[in-house]
Write a structure and sequence with these properties.
The protein has helices at 37-54, 58-63, 67-71, 75-83, and strands at 26-28, 33-35, 86-87, 90-91, 93-96, 100-103, 106-114, 116-117, 122-123, 127-135, 141-145. The protein is an alpha+beta fold. It has one domain (33-145): Nuclear Transport Factor 2, Chain: A. Strands 5, 6, 7, 10 and 11 form a 5-stranded antiparallel beta sheet that branches. The chain has a two-stranded antiparallel sheet with strand order 1-2. The chain has a two-stranded antiparallel sheet with strand order 3-4. Strand 10 and strand 11 (141-145) form a beta hairpin. The chain is globular and about 40 Å long.
Length: 147
């Protein structure tokens, strides 16, 4: 190329789409863990439920519960659960840890809730628990056990 000639930079991108397909099983070689479509769907459902808790969205939270979970939780318990998520404009928070498959269509996720104390708008002690999510239809998931 002669001196003083300008060249256009070229960019090349390489992508591998096999790993991005949701219907494929993905293995995390470093940890030995395997994620499947059911796991990610259950995790998404757990996250949606806890977002409802964080936003004090009782209606969405109740719609996401299985009949069994509703029967084992009193109305008073549900009200206390959802009202502990924020106070005075301060939102509570949550963490969802790596879950595990209990059996086909049933996953358990360790969670930590950081509720806000309603009287002083300060955070209470973190509450460690578990949330159980079950498949209720082809692409439908519900919470079978509250944190």
């Amino acid at each position: 190329m002669p001196a003083g000639t300008k060249t256009k930079p070229s960019l090349s991108f390489a992508s591998r789409t096999d790993g991005a397909r949701p219907d494929r099983v993905r293995s995390d070689r470093a940890s030995g863990r395997v994620s499947d479509r059911g796991y990610t769907s259950a995790l998404a459902a757990a996250n949606r439920f806890l977002q409802a808790w964080q936003n004090q969205d009782h209606e969405t939270g109740l719609l996401m519960l299985t009949d069994d979970a509703k029967q084992h939780s009193s109305e008073e318990h549900m009200e206390m659960f959802f009202s502990s998520s924020s106070s005075g404009g301060i939102d509570g928070a949550y963490e969802i840890a790596r879950g595990k498959k209990m059996k086909a269509g049933r996953y358990v996720f360790p969670v930590t809730l950081f509720p806000v104390h309603s009287d002083t708008t300060r955070f209470d002690h973190p509450q460690k628990s578990q949330i159980v999510v079950v498949r209720t239809g082809k692409d439908e998931w519900a919470v079978d056990r509250l944190p």
